[in-house]
């Protein structure tokens, strides 16, 4: 019988061992900071509340400018992911911090925007290419 329960993992390393520290932070995603360019950085956080998703805080010169959920939607009443420069969006996608940032935003004559997840886009293209 397998359990879906998650168990805490403790990583021990010597404080002044920079290689071990880098490897430890490579194993845990939460709190990991990524330098995106000279001005922008990002920090990935794991969800701690039932109504929360894993998300990334984006900083410009140390000031938070955007918080984006793993699925590409805004978090913490943040401006949308699309408000970031395209170059920064691309870097965040490349780091796999946002999985559905390649959502297409469709608007039609005053209707609410419709987000089409990447998985649905792929299914459409597969069916289209296979003629089904």
Which ranges are low-confidence, i.e. pLDDT below 50, for 5 or more consecutive residues?
101-109
- Count of DSSP H/I helices: 3
Distance between the termini: 39 Å
The general outline is globular
Biggest sheet character: 4 strands, antiparallel
What's the count of strands?
Answer: 6
Numbering strands along the chain, what is their spatial order in the largest sheet?
1-2-3-4
Radius of gyration: 18 Å
Q: Tell me the β content.
A: 15-25%
Helix-strand category: alpha+beta
Order of helices and strands: HEEEEHEEH
Q: Summarize model confidence as the mean pLDDT.
A: 75
Helix content: 10-25%
How would you describe the overall organization of this protein?
By secondary structure, the protein is an alpha+beta fold. Helix content is about 25%, strand content about 20%. The chain has helices at about 20-25, 85-95, 120-130, and strands at about 35, 40-45, 55-60, 65-70, 105, 115. The chain has a four-stranded antiparallel sheet, with no helix packed on it. It has a two-stranded antiparallel ribbon with strand order 5-6. Strand 3 and strand 4 (about 65-70) form a beta hairpin. The chain is globular and about 60 Å long. Residues about 100-110 have low confidence and may be disordered.
């Amino acid at each position: 019988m397998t359990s879906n329960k998650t168990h805490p993992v403790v990583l021990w390393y010597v404080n002044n061992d920079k290689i071990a520290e880098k490897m430890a932070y490579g194993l845990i995603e939460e709190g990991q900071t990524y330098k995106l360019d000279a001005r922008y950085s990002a920090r990935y956080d794991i969800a701690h509340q039932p109504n929360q998703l894993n998300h990334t805080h984006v900083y410009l010169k140390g000031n938070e400018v955007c918080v984006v959920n793993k699925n590409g939607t805004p978090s913490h009443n943040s401006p949308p992911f699309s408000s970031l420069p395209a170059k920064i969006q691309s870097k965040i996608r490349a780091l796999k911090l946002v999985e559905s940032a390649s959502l297409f935003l469709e608007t039609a004559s005053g209707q609410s925007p419709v987000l089409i997840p990447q998985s649905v886009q792929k299914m459409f293209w597969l069916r289209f290419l296979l003629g089904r």
